[in-house]
Specification:
alpha/beta; Rossmann fold; UDP-N-acetylmuramoyl-L-alanine:D-glutamate ligase; Protein-Tyrosine Phosphatase, Chain A; 3 domains; six-stranded parallel beta sheet; six-stranded mixed beta sheet; 20 strands; 35% helix
């Protein structure tokens, strides 16, 4: 195999190590460089594949010799080494872009500020049950690059963040899904919402008339962008409020999915997942499945049987008739809006963490209506206390998950909910949102 030059991988997490494995397989010299420390398990993988690596530094004279660089999604474009590479005209791509060059798979790509994980897992569940040989990757599970290298499949469903989409050049999903766009990660987009919107829409940038774009027609941001920036792919909107000719809508409490006079009808009350946001996620996943010729009965059965994602409105336990709910994956205000909206009874809300520039005003009416007490779980809770001091009489500050759950237990009465839905990132007190969610579940089980 002809040597393809030097592939430098910046960041040795899941996407970085996966890219290194694929690069090696495809005939690149590979060098992995991480400014932080590399976990032992990833070091072992790199050694097994005989891939050169360094940690706690970036050796510039080596990195700048690269023919191509894969930058992990967590590294901003503004960092010095990336700026030097760009100045030297070295292509800097995302793992999604790099991996897509070495597979002929048909891809369903899913992005959005909220709902993308549930929609990705649900689409994968339906398509797999429908008989497709399909892998799931992106923000979820083993990296796309690693799967292309070691067990490629004819179909993929990919959960894609805006950071992953920022680094694409030619990547094109046959079916693209956009669930919602609300302000998130604005610290990475110069605090400009328009930059973030454009980033999400990169998912359709290489689509043609032969591809499909499934999108939320109730999201004003998406609808406005499409009016101002027409795209080439075939549009299949979904909506809870409007009747739609080609796409999905609600009529008499039924989901109707209609594409070229071919119709699927499914009662919303038979969905395993509750809440309006999950009706939309189901519409999006089912529309994609319909396009890929999955039988109607399979789609219906899967929607009735799919019970959702860990750390997303996950019912943990009922103790003394109080339901404890883990929504640790709600790392922004919009996700928490959906969670509070889904609460059917009085709620004790555990909230807080690292604020990403949150505007809490859109939660006021829901908090007034549903929340009887707020338990803050963060190092700095002043913004939450200022925002909701006039809505809720009882606001308590805590620094550990155990304290938060113990206080919730004392405050809760029969038929209440205790909801962990932080609306913030987790890095002040926890490793990540999974760690936060698991600690919540452990604390509840110990009550």
């Amino acid at each position: 195999m002809k040597n393809k030059g030097l592939l430098v991988v910046l960041g040795a997490g899941e996407s970085g190590v996966g890219t290194a494995i694929l690069g090696k397989k495809e005939g690149f010299d590979v060098f992995v460089s991480d400014k932080g420390t590399i976990t032992d398990s990833y070091k072992e993988v790199l050694r097994n594949f005989e891939i050169e690596w360094e940690e706690e530094q970036h050796t510039e004279n080596k990195i700048l010799k690269a023919s191509i660089v894969m930058k992990s999604p967590g590294i901003p474009d503004q960092v010095q080494i990336v700026q030097k590479l760009l100045k030297n005209k070295v292509p800097v791509v995302s793992e999604i872009e790099f991996a897509s060059r070495y597979t002929n798979a048909r891809i369903v790509g899913i992005t959005g500020s909220n709902g993308k994980t549930t929609t990705t897992m649900l689409a994968h569940y339906i398509l797999k049950h429908g008989g497709l040989d399909i892998n799931m990757a992106g923000n979820i599970g083993d990296s796309f690059a690693k799967q292309v290298a070691l067990n490629d499949a004819p179909y993929y469903v990919l959960e894609l963040s805006s950071f992953q989409l920022d680094g694409i050049v030619d990547f094109v999903p046959h079916i693209a899904i956009l669930t919602t766009i609300t302000p998130d990660h604005l610290d990475r987009y110069e605090h400009n919402f328009d930059n973030y919107i454009a980033s999400k829409f990169r998912i359709v940038k290489n689509q043609t008339e032969n591809d499909y774009f499934i999108y939320n027609a109730d999201d004003e941001v998406i609808v406005r962008y499409l009016k101002e920036n027409p795209i080439r792919s075939r549009l299949l909107p979904f909506s809870l409020t409007k009747k739609i000719e080609n796409g999905a809508y609600i009529e008499n409490e039924n989901i109707i999915i209609q594409i070229d006079n071919n119709k699927i009808i499914m009662p919303t009350k038979e969905l395993a997942l509750s809440g309006n946001h999950n009706v939309k996620n189901a519409m999006a996943a089912a529309t994609a499945s319909h396009l890929l010729k999955i039988r109607k009965t399979t789609i219906r059965e899967c929607l009735e049987n799919f019970h959702g994602v860990e750390h997303r409105l996950e019912n943990v336990l009922k103790i003394n008739n109080v339901q404890y709910i883990n929504d640790s994956k709600a790392t922004n205000v919009n996700a928490t809006f959906y969670a509070l909206d889904a609460m059917k009874s009085s709620t004790i809300w555990i909230v807080g963490g690292v604020d990403k520039g949150n505007d809490y005003t859109e939660l006021y009416s829901l908090v007034n209506e549903k929340v009887k007490a707020i338990i803050c779980l963060g190092i700095d809770n002043s913004k939450i206390i200022n925002a909701f001091g006039n809505c809720v009489d009882n606001i308590v500050e805590t620094q550990t998950m155990k304290d938060a759950v113990d206080i919730a237990y004392k405050l809760a009465e029969r038929n209440d909910n205790v909801l962990l839905s932080p609306a913030c990132a987790s890095f002040d007190l926890f490793k990540n949102y999974e760690d936060r969610g698991r600690q919540f579940k452990e604390a509840v089980r110990e009550l």
